[in-house]
Amino acid sequence: YTFDVTEVLFGAGYVPSNSEKYPLFGIISALYDTFHALPKITCSKTGALEDVRLCLTKDFKFRDCLGESKCPDEVSLPEPDVNRIARLSVFGQKSS
What we know:
Blueprint: H1 5-11, E1 17-23, H2 24-35, E2 40-43, E3 49-53, E4 55-56, E5 62-63, E6 74-77, H3 82-92
Antiparallel strand pairs: 1-6, 2-3, 4-5
Family: Belongs to the RNase T2 family.
Pfam family, one: Ribonuclease_T2
InterPro entries: RNase_T2-like (IPR001568), RNase_T2-like_sf (IPR036430)
């Protein structure tokens, strides 16, 4: 299975932006509406969304994640750092 959180957020109108702020409740609601479980979200000290976790039962069904999300009421979804992605891509390549 593939669980594309990015696609869910795009579909709900949440797109990466270095200047736009989005309501955390709206992001959680979009994910809950799709996966029928509460995600665990972490943010940077500046309020940028860093991590979205979906929790599963032992039989791979979604369940609510435990603990609160430590984020402000409004969060940013930073645009990807293309230089970092390029470095990771090169680093991750297998040599022939």
